[in-house]
Amino acid sequence: MKLSNETKLAFYALYKQITEGPCKTEAPSRFKMIERAKWQAWSNLGKMSKEEAQKKYVEALSKAVPDWRQRLAELNKSQL
Questions:
Q1: The pLDDT of residue 16 is above 80
Q2: pLDDT tier, 6 (very low <50, low <70, confident <90, very high otherwise)
């Protein structure tokens, strides 16, 4: 499974929103393109609530990996 950079940024931003809340850090230098892209993706979420970010994360995961729930259940069974 290969995810686009856009999808990876969306997951990163939603994760940060869930774990830290709205972005309050200063923007990285424009010369640090990867850090800047990650910061921009997170910053663009604005004041989205943790609950809304969690919902959007699950929606994005379901779109990217439709059978993720089944895979997780199988993984959990194999660890018992």
A1: yes
A2: very high
What are the tokens at 67?
């059978």
Domain total of the chain: 1
pLDDT(33) > 90: yes
Q: Which amino acid does the sequence have at 37?
A: A
Residue 57 belongs to a domain with what CATH number? Answer: 1.20.80.10
Asked if 46 and 56 touch (Cβ cutoff 8 Å), the reply is no
Rg, Å, the chain Cα set: 15
DSSP designation for 80:
-
Give me the DSSP letters along 40-59.
HHHHTTTT--HHHHHHHHHH
